[in-house]
Design brief:
This protein is an alpha+beta fold. The protein has helices spanning about 1-15, 20-35, 40-50, 55-65, 85-100, 100-115, 120-125, 135-140, 150-170, 180-190, 195-210, 265-275, 285-295, 295-300, 395-405, and strands at about 235-240, 240-245, 260, 265, 310-315, 325-330, 350, 365-370, 375-380, 410-415. It folds into four domains: about 1-140, Serine Threonine Protein Phosphatase 5, Tetratricopeptide repeat (Alpha Horseshoe), CATH 1.25.40.10; about 150-210, no CATH class; about 225-350, Pdz3 Domain, CATH 2.30.42.10; about 360-415, no CATH class. The strands form two sheets. Strands 1, 2, 3, 4, 5, 6 and 7 form a seven-stranded antiparallel β-sheet that branches. A hairpin with a 2-residue loop joins β3 (about 260) and β4. The model has no long low-confidence stretch (mean pLDDT about 90).
Amino acid sequence: MTDQLAAIAQAEQLSRAEDWSQAALEWQAVVGRNPVNGVFWDRLAEARFATGEYAGALTAYERAETLGVWPVRGFELTPLPSILPAEISYRIACCHARLGDHEQALTALAKAVRQRLRDLDRPATDAHLAALHDDPRFRELIGLAGPEQLSRVDGWRADLRTLRREIKRRTPFPDLIDADFDAAADHLENAIPQLDDARIVVGMWRLLRWLRDGHAYLDTDEAFPDWARCLPIWFFLFAEGLFIPQVEARYQHLLGAEVLAVDGRPAAEVIAALDPLLTRDNDYWATANAPVWLRRPVFLHAVDAADDPGQLTLTVRLADGSVRDVPVAADAAPSDGPWPLHCPAESLRLVRAADGPAYLRDVDNHYWFERLAAEDLVYFQFNAILDKPGEPLAAFYQRMFTAIDDHGCRALVVDLR
């Protein structure tokens, strides 16, 4: 057992160093001792593939597929992208293509697609599959079928077919992609000639709702950069109504105002018009995301909830109780993308950091902690699952838990708001 553990550690070290020839020899020894572990066969296949030994890699990948690949604790065998069945099928396709067996390569690639291969752009640029790139079956399989230059209508219809296929292919709830979905997709396809681009995209967002996935979205920034323009104010939907808790400085007079209407339409009516577009995991997602969409006039206009795709006229009740109409134009897209969760630090917040609760003290900081000696606890606020340039998340965790070990504390409070 000790020899096997040492052999695994040595093989893994060689793989991480990308010393593939030696890694292949070491992994061969590992599977010789334990031929029923799919992870080890996967590592052997990876090393063989990297050295151009495609026949041997194919044998090893097929063995890994039969046995299964899973996370392994203790040995830290990372990364393991082939834990996804589609990834092994994809690599088998690459092996067949390199060996000149185009039919088997297409069969394996089709299997990978059925198994929900995530990145369908990848095969089109993968040198391992270059021999298949001109095959019409390959192009149809990954959504590249048809002439390179399409009319506007045919182009949108091709995009819609791809979206429709991907929704059906990727959904974890296939029984929910029902006749109503197909009817909605058919209706959108037929309507494309009469719709402008924004309304077509809005129709596609409506189809995404069938995925029941709050992380499903359409990225239109490259194709339509003007759509990323945002109002320089932020909204939040409280139980009491829609309010403006954050603004850029020139709109300071709107700080804390209640939004009663948008272009003469009641705020509740506008939010209801957006609701069919809001992908979600649960009901709260709509409550949280509707105010973010309200900053994008182009989409409000596309759902007939605003008169102008470039600005909104807000009817607001100010802090002094007066009601007035205020036109607010959309600005250029913010540097952190068109869907920022927080306003920049130089803008104004209804609750000042010095006076407000801890969770509003430093919302632009991805993560921070402080030790509260009087309460005998450590308070940790987690604002974003992103590494900070000066301190990656792993390093932050190490620093925080070192502080806890050094000082001791009764509790660790993790604030996710």
